[in-house]
Amino acid sequence: MVTQSYLDFESQIAELEGKIQDLRQVDTDGTTVNIDDEIKRLENKVGNLLKDTYAKLSPWQKTLVSRHPNRPHFQDYIEVLIEDFTPLAGDRLYGEDKAIIAGLGRFKGRSVAIIGQEKGHDTESRLKHNFGMAEPEGYRKAIRIMKMAEDFDLPVLTLADTPGAYPGIGAEERGQAEAIARSTQMCLKLGVPIISVIIGEGMSGGAVSIATANRVYMLEHSIYSVISPEACSSILWRSADRAKDAAAGMKLTAQHLHELNVIDDIIPEPVGGAHRAPTETIQKTGDVVEASLNEFASFTDDQLRHQRREKFLAIGRTEFGN
Known about the structure:
about 325 residues; eight-stranded mixed β-sheet; globular
């Protein structure tokens, strides 16, 4: 069983759930005291508190939820949604990048290509996947898999969850910006449907490079922006200490971005966030993706490209009256 981690604003919830665990321990010790009613009362109180708390999260609090250590990551989605997943490694130019996982599999009976960032769940896996921050090889691998998908007429599913592209000197020397730009270009050129979901953090070109899709969705408590709140704060105020203020002004939540027509829709999360019910969240995401694939099943190559192009050209477009 995964140990529950609590965020700063969940102190009351943590206290109540701690009391419930203590009472259950007493119950299992064979005491004659009837505590079932008290446990039920506390569980109802926790449920109401979770509902109230998560209904009014600030942008900074949503940022924290999107980074929750128990939030389902790319490989969790693979395990639930994709049968016979076959990962494909390497960019055929330089090497392998484990921050981006890409491969082929079957999604609800349909053969697909799937690409996404993996952050890792513990110290070892986080280091292995470089915390989801890809280098040029990762984006070039994504391009390779997208080309393969187009050659074999396979839809492309992408799941974005990254703090951003890796900013190291080596990555820049090997063409980080060029790789991101070409991956974004490849998304736009695809003659097959591409459906993207921001499942956690969708930061900068690291996310856009695999999420320039026919349909872009966000989980309810995910974030999507050109820069992280901490980096924005460092630029504006020469310190990361005002990340909360930066988050409030960046319009990075799913609700803001849906209102601005940057994304197509929001996938609801269970009360308390995706980390409290990972399988339910993943299955809901799968249902939304399946509906989108069905929507685009009859589109021609040119129609798919045109729809995608017009979708992104329309972002930020303003109509002025006479």
